[in-house]
Structures are given as C-alpha cells and as structure tokens.
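Protein modeling request. Please complete all fields; requests missing the sequence field cannot be processed.
Requester role: graduate student
Desired output: 3D structure, token encoding
Chains: 1
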Amino acid sequence: MQVILLKDLPPVGRKGEIKNVADGYALNFLLPKKLAVSATAEAIDKLQFNKTHQEQKQLLFLDKTSSALQKLNNKRLVFKAKASDKGTLFKAIAAADIIKAVAKEYHFVLEEAWLVLAKPLKELGQHPVTVKFQNESVVLIIDILKQDEQKK
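Delivered output (152 residues):
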C-alpha cells in the first residue's frame, strides 16, 4: 500500500515521502496513529502543492534575509559598559547582547548561529563581528565605550 508520511519515521522514511509499506502496517499502525495518509491522487496533488509553497516561502525568506543582512554591512553598534582602568569590562558583551541591540537598532532579528564570535567581548574599543548566513557574510562594528559612572 502506498502512503504519504506525515512525520519522520527513521526505519520507513522522512516526512512528505511516498512509500510502499505492508497493508497491515499501514492499516493497523500508520493510519490510525496519523503518521501517514493513503497516497490517493488528491493527497499527492496536495503534497506537491505544499512542497511548492514551502519552497517559495523558503526562497522569499532567504531573499529577505540576504537583503536585510546587506543593509547591516559595516553598521556600527555602540555599547556602554562598566570597565576597569585597564579597559577590561566587568561584564562581557555576548552574542545575546548583540542580537538584542541589532533587533532594537535595525529591526532585524539575527540568529545566534549566524554570529561568528569566538568569545564574548571583554575589552573597550572597536571589535569587528562577522555575521554569516548561507554563503554571505557581513561585518558589524561593535564599539564598546566606558560607561561614565556618576555618583550623587
């Protein structure tokens, strides 16, 4: 019996694949647990439509993300942090801080995996941070300035 898998099943196949399985396996296990549907012409057409739609959404996402990243190229983010007299920060600037600042300043949400940051930034000054997405990479300039401590 031919079925369309609705979920990944390691011994059988991946979601969206059309597979030939034993009738008893399909009727007694896959179909009742809604792990698969019968591969009718209508179901196959719907599967093809959904795949095409997903591909179009993915291409649109890639295009929008790519163009947004290009707008970030060589942009400067300024952080003010408490630091020692030697220029070492008391609290490091981490990837999460950079992501939050980009979202606030440029209205773009970065993924942490896109940031190429060997270690959190712990020194005052300018730090180039690479943002990699697919085959593209852009550089963000992170400026870390000493926060003026005012006591009253």
